[in-house]
Design a protein that fits this description.
There is one protein chain. This protein is mainly β. The protein has a domain of 126 residues. Helix content is 6%, strand content 31%. The chain has 3 helices and 32 strands. The chain has a 5-stranded mixed beta sheet. A hairpin with a 4-residue loop joins strand 10 and strand 11. It is globular and about 55 Å long. 48% of the residues are buried.
């Protein structure tokens, strides 16, 4: 009997240990940043309805002091998840719109009552606003089916009622009040698939609106919708497509610049140069990267071959105080360059070389990696230094390996605990403190086409407040929301 009891104790101890510890991993060290309890999670029974194209946000919707993960998806629904992996079903959530949600769902206090509202654009051409409980407050019809751009909330939170900006496929920019009524309409001309940005380029406190149409032309407007200037003087090409941009002070002079990819070459006459302009104009037939001044002059420009993905960012990866340009090309390489296009030491980084650092026999080292979103700069491991984090889609990898999160240090070395396999993905990842405990979490959409679960959250060993560097068209509005 004694031996039987002892055997049962051993079995129970082993069972408890196996329940408490994550299972063995093919990639050694991945447990350093494990999946958060309750994740990964699913929110749609359809492998395609679960597709997230926009960014995920972390917002305290219900006022309990803990943030919910907020996003829209191809199933037409606005979803919210708590930090423990449960989807929010309080009130009327989740809420349905009239079509797939391709952009980013925004949340903010529109009417100054200290309660957040939720705003989303839908493929049916309408803009929807909901209360914190999910009650539909209003719907604004743009009469433009195929709406993919994200709404942008304007104004300063907590000071006055906020407005909404929304660009539409017919090239118009709509400005709406907090109640959904239109304040002005700017008829731009060419389609505008990229969200606008509310900016203060000169640092004077005078808010303006910046848009970039699908031909690559920028328009700077007053807050009342009047045109200030347009540049360059001729469009790149109707084939340019939605053209993202990033707004930041790249040279430390207190004035913001605009960094952008251009997919078709410009003639010399279309590019006035700022004093001390760095780099050379990309030749005809080549793509390039430009940094523009608020006056529409080129502060920096250089060709990139092969073509660059749709977006780029700026940041200081190596901690020397100088900003770098961060972007990926269509050959599966990640670039870190000076503003004049000169690569930093050890860059660009071929993602296939990162594969060689991974101890996982399932991973095809040949691969065809693609980075659809610009890399993110953040201190992921809490060592005080910035790392570069990016999502990779690779059609040669099977199932969950078809999409992964990779984090590397300034020298391009893979961080322990990575890659994180999440399945195919198109959405924007997020680093945030979801439960207000001082520790940060990494939130990543994935699982497109049933390649994995649909929403992934990983615990990070850092308690440091992170300043995320977002895409320029969303950058202004993520801060404080």
């Amino acid at each position: 009997m004694t031996r039987l009891v002892a055997l049962l104790v051993c079995v129970m101890s082993a069972w408890q240990a196996s329940a408490a510890e994550p299972g063995p991993s093919v990639h050694a060290g991945r447990e350093r940043m494990p999946a958060r309890r309750g994740f990964p999670a699913d929110f749609s029974r359809s492998p395609f309805g679960g597709e997230i194209r926009g960014a995920v946000s972390a917002v305290d919707i219900d006022g309990d002091g803990k943030k919910e993960i907020l996003f829209g998806s191809f199933d037409g629904m606005i979803h919210m998840f708590r930090a423990d992996g449960r989807e929010v079903h309080d009130g009327l959530w989740p809420r349905h719109t009239g079509g797939p949600i391709v952009g980013t769902v925004k949340a903010g206090d529109l009417d100054g009552d200290d309660t957040p509202e939720v705003v989303a654009s839908s493929y049916d051409g309408k803009l929807y606003a909901f209360s914190d409980r999910g009650d539909r407050l209003w719907t604004a019809d743009t009469h433009q089916p195929g709406l993919t751009s994200s709404p942008v909330l304007t104004g300063k939170p907590g000071i006055h009622s906020r407005g909404i900006l929304l660009s539409t496929p017919d090239g118009a920019l709509h400005s709406l009040n907090a109640n959904g009524s239109r304040t002005w309409l700017h008829p731009n001309g060419p389609p505008v698939g990229t969200p606008p940005a509310e900016v203060d380029l000169a640092g004077t406190g005078d808010r303006q609106v910046l848009i970039r149409d699908d031909s690559g032309v920028f328009s700077l407007l007053t807050k009342d919708g009047n045109l200030v200037r347009k540049w360059p003087s001729e469009p790149y090409s109707d084939r340019n497509g939605p053209a993202a941009f990033h707004v930041a002070d790249t040279d430390g002079d207190g004035i913001q610049e605009i960094a952008a990819v251009q997919k078709e070459a410009l003639s010399p006459g279309a590019v006035p140069r700022a004093p001390g302009c760095w780099g050379t104009l990309p030749p005809q037939g080549e793509q390039g990267v430009f940094v523009w001044t608020p006056a529409g002059e080129a502060a920096s420009m250089f060709p990139v071959d092969p073509a660059v993905g749709a977006s780029l960012r700026t940041g200081d990866l190596n901690g020397d105080g100088a900003k770098e340009l961060l972007f990926a090309d269509e050959a599966g390489r990640v670039h870190v360059t000076a503003l004049d296009g000169k690569p930093r030491t050890g860059w660009p980084l071929d993602i296939r070389d990162v594969y060689k650092q991974v101890d996982d026999p399932r991973l095809d080292p040949r691969g065809r990696p693609a980075v659809e979103r610009a890399p993110v700069l953040a201190d992921i491991d809490g060592d005080g230094a910035s790392e570069l984090v990016f999502c990779v889609n690779d059609p040669r990898q099977a199932d969950e390996l078809g999409g992964m999160v990779i984090a590397v240090d300034a020298a391009g070395k893979l961080l322990a605990g990575f890659p994180k396999y999440v399945g195919r993905n198109h959405g924007e990842m997020l680093v945030a403190d979801l439960d207000d405990d001082g520790d940060m979490e990494l939130v990543v959409p994935g699982g497109i086409g049933a390649t994995s679960r649909q929403l992934h959250v990983f615990d990070l060993p850092t308690s440091q407040k992170l300043e995320m560097i977002f895409l320029g068209s969303d950058f202004q509005m993520f801060k404080g929301e």
